[in-house]
Amino acid sequence: QLQASGGGLVQPGGSLRLSCAASGFNLDYYNIGWFRQAPGKEREGVSCISSSDDFTYYADSVKGRFTISRDKASNTLYLQMNSLKPEDTAVYYCRADRGRSIYWGQGTQVTVSS
Fold it and tell me: Would you give per-residue pLDDT tens digits along the chain (114 residues)?
């Protein structure tokens, strides 16, 4: 399973780091990613990284501000979010997939507001 954490309330321009700890499987062998869903909108992909770490994707709206990473020692996925904007407000979900094996985290709320 995946356990997400790190969300919260932050002012515009602030930073947050989301974490997603995996248990029961090794993240090293999975493609990993972060998605988000704002109220009234569809879930969208924010960032992902391939299992071999040779391909990384960022949505245009977060390029240059967000960084995805994984820590092999702790079997954890991260999303560092800087220069946050009100439009980044959403529930953020982590995901890991390998073939037909797909795991989703439970979601963590990020609210950017003054």
Answer: 999 999 999 999 999 999 999 999 999 999 999 999 999 999 999 999 999 888 999 999 999 999 999 999 999 999 999 999 999 999 999 999 999 999 999 999 999 999
Report the amino acid identity of residue 48.
C
The amino acid occupying position 42 is E
